[in-house]
Amino acid sequence: MRMLLKSASSIVVSVAMAVAVSGCRGYQSGSLMHDQVKTVSVGRVVNQSEDASFGALLRQKVVEELVRDGSVIVRPQGKAQATMRLRLLPYQVTAVASARRRGEDTSNRDRNTYQSEVFRAEVAVEVRLEIPGRDKAAVEWKRVTGSAEFSRLSDIPESRRDAMETALTEAARKAVLAVVEAW
Description:
Elements: H1 2-23, E1 39-47, H2 53-69, E2 73-74, E3 82-88, E4 92-100, E5 114-130, E6 139-151, H3 156-180
Helix pairs in contact: 2-3
């Protein structure tokens, strides 16, 4: 009986190993970046948004994400095998939640009006990877987005700026993935 249990358990283990190995056949560990691109620079950001500082902030976030990802080494422009080009498109801020106006100073006719309380900041970024000396880009323009919500409870401009930073961080992460996982 022991012999039968031992052989049955070895068969089960063998089948489980075969299933596990065949299921991981297409898995690749490590970087998904193209073998020939080891270093990347981040070029100047074309900033089409209303805030001039958002272009520099996006560039900083992309560099941080490239370093965190670790697929390539970030180098100064002219010393890298490829250059990431970025375009920051105009951002959108939309109301996503509102609340009924109430209070002592609200007139009777205004008691059924609503005021926006929560907003969503959305950014769109286009990214392209160019290799110097080649006519065609290694990765053509791809659009990625980022978003974050903020409330009007505190200082609205400051809350909007914090939300834009969060949205730019998300867009930077997606831009890096769009380039690194293009192959």
